[in-house]
Amino acid sequence: MTPQPQSDVLRxxxxxxxxxxxxxAPQHGWGIGQRIQQISEGELEVNQGSLYPALxxxxxxxxxxxxxxxxxxxxxxxxxEITRLGLAALEREADSWRRFAATxxxxxxxx
Amino acid sequence: xxxxxxVWARVRQLVARRATERRMDEEMRFHLDMExxxxxxxxxxxxxxxxxxxxxxxxVEKHKEGMRDGRRIPLLENLVQDTRYAARSLRxxxxxxxxxxxxxxxxxxxxxxxxxxxxRLLLLPPPHVMxxxxxxxxxFTYDAVDRDPETYTGRDYxxxxxxxxxxxxxxxxxxxxxxxxxxxxxxxxxxxxxTLATQGFWSVLGTRPALGRLxxxxxxxxxxxxxxxxxxxxxxxxxxxxxPAVVGKTxxxxxxxxxxxxxxxxxxxxxxxxxxxxxxxxxxxxxxSPDSLKWTETRYGFWLTDVGRLAPGATAAQAGAELSxxxxxxxxxxxxxxxxxxxxxxxxxxxxxxxxxxxxxxxDMKRIPEARVAVWLVAIAGVLLAAACVNVASLLLLRAMRRxxxxxxxxxxxxxxxxxxxxxxxESLLLATVGGVVALTVAIAGTTWISRVLLPDLAWEPDxxxxxxxxxxxxxxxxxxxxxxxxxxxxTREDPARVLREGAQQGSPARSRVLRGLLATQIALSVVLxxxxxxxxxxxxxxxxxxxxxxxQHVLVATIxxxxxxxxxxxxxxxxxxxLERVRAIPGVExxxxxxxxxxxxxxxxxxxxxxxxxxxxxxxxxxPTVNYVTPDFFATAGTRIVLxxxxxxxxxxxxxxxxxxxxxxxxxxxxxxxxxxxxxxxxMKGCAxxxxxxxxxxxxxxxxxxxxxxxxxxxxxxxGLLLVREAPRARLGAETLRRALAELDPNLPYLHxxxxxxxxxxxxxxxxxxxxxxxxxxxxxxxxxxxGLYSALAYAITQRTREIGIxxxxxxxxxxxxxxxxxxxxxxxxxxxxxxxxACIVAGPWIAxxxxxxxxxxxxxxxxxxxLLLFVTLLASAGPIxxxxxxxxxxxxxxx
Lengths: 111, 897
Hints:
The complex is a heterodimer of chains A (111) and B (897). Chain A has 111 residues and is an alpha+beta fold. Chain A has helices at residues 14-24, 29-39, 48-60, 84-110; strands spanning 7-8, 27-28, 44-45, 64-70, 76-82.
């Protein structure tokens, strides 16, 4: 059995996670999901239902690009790569996310 | 640009939909395979691994749908979403929404309606005039050394002929005069507005008829022309039901048969603003007058308006220069003929301006008094629009304050500021659009009201909504949305963490300088408008209080134009004597009299008249006296007070040499002593006439005119010209009853005109009445807006300060303290607003001064009354919030947070 995901990732943050993952190396969809799970030490599991639309959205916004490539097991796969615009967006979004987390923390601590 | 890319993507996607679908399928399949492989590596059987992979993945179609979603154009999608969101949030607060929409509708609607009238009066060229910018109208200005310059809009017929013969800068020249003539016969008879036009008139304007033809130059010669008539479009519709067979029919004008040859196009009004019922050749001017005046040759007249079309290449300035030179030489000629000093000798400067025919505004701003008022109306409508915008802005700001936390949370939860701003902007745009649609309705209704009720006798085209008006409304809407949208936008720039930390106590409107400023501005604008209303109402009051020297309300005047009937003077006189007897027998008639003229109508210059020694100089300054011949009872009928002596006696009608003076003549002629009993020699009389009475001055023409010299002589039985009838108190006699009673005397009477003695004044009073009604309507509207704004702000402040009030009550504050607390906020804003408004009125007052009637622009009582009214309104607006504050229960209030 697959372990139950500990935390369902907030919808708005999928893009951020995708950008972060792609900022390390180009990757195909399945790989991105695996990578997120891996980095978060299994705490976060990205639902495919939000991953692929998120990829489409990001590509639409020009933050990532995609092209066919060959996977590790020699299969044709769609590889995604972060753009310069994407890198800038990542920085911005990460910053705002940190501020939000701090705010949440503050609110939670106070009440 | 992000959106161009996404649009491009969308287009590409449409073209290559199948490729995309294939790509998605392949990507999904790859994902499932990878997942399955991973499951196998983790020790599952192949079937189990594949099953788990599919289970974990969920429906393939659902994912594909999700991916397609991701490819939609976000801009359009957001817009739809924002609009829906805005509509939902506006529906949730109906009070706010309705207030804003009505505010916008009032502000935009009123401005647009005013603009419609304004553009009609001032901006739009006269319809059905070819190349109206090439048509000019001369204005004659005389600037004498010891007098204010005077401008005339017309000359005489001889002048027109001179210009026509000699002008090089004008390709064609025409002239016209507007008059009231009785037309048609029997029960269809009526007083029509006619325009008499000379040769050249139609070719200057280049108008084409809607039906039939216009009259030719040959038909329009002054003497020996044709009896032809062209009907105005509106008159044709009204009087003939728009019958196309009207051409060729006969229309009686002053009793003479005129052949109808055509109908003008709809909306045509020449170059004047007033509608013309019937267009006639200039020959109709003296048609049928037995004592044929040589009106074509008389000079020094200012009754005929010229109009010309500039020759190719000529400018209006050149035409003005040419006409100036021509006019000066004509004037000098006349002066020499009359052995008078010429203008250069007296130092009088004179010039002619070839003015444009577009709009109502002459060079001297005098062409139509409504035009000046119209400029003011637009200005005050602008003030109302400003007040409406300020009100909307303050309401939106207040709303933004209420939603401060909501906005902070949404920003914190990751909603982009841009999106947030777009959403807020969409909301104000939606509000403005709804307001704009309602405003358009208000504008249409407003224009109709103004044209039907306030300015009924100008020619209005049926479609008064033009593109200018529409684009103006559009600009107003967008401008307002942008302005009002600014306030909440500022909100999204705040640091959400700080807002959330601050808690609910913050954002009190009492502390918002911007909001207080907006509220005070609204009150200031209301002060300005209400002061205007007050000043105009005071003017009307003063006008009503003016002692005209006669009673303008309870007296009817009956006149008949006998010129076409061929009746002799004796027969006409006999008719009037008979009419006088008949009328006196009608119940409801208190008194009646005959006279040659009546106040506000014509006035006849007196014959040779010698005053006592030493008064000649005064008479020269006051002008020649005028005379009226009257029957006994004239003064009592007209309501003119007898100051000294007595009225004429019936037996004096047959030539007893007696006369009555007006007060000014008595004072000028017999300074410091009584004129009674003085005997004045007349060259037309043997001996002299004895002064038997002195009566109060009666206005000759105008509400405002200098004192005039006047005297009265007994009316001989042959000279009757008009009938005055005084209604008994509380008897509503009415013009129609009188008309019918007189018509019974003679079935062949031409048109019988009956009106109230004061009727000519109505037109003079109209600018003030117009100003008073519009200022009042707008002022009250602005005041209501201010009250609503203040009420909302105070009411919101109370909800924000519930806790504070609770604490205060708990530590022993009394009801009075709470009232004071709430009141202070409202009153402070009101006082600032009133002070600023009063200051504005005092500064701007002089601009309006000459529109008022015997009221200073800084009229104390008006300013005090307006201030008091607004303070009272402030108290009313505070009453609700105060009641709420008094109901605060300290224990609940303090537990609330």
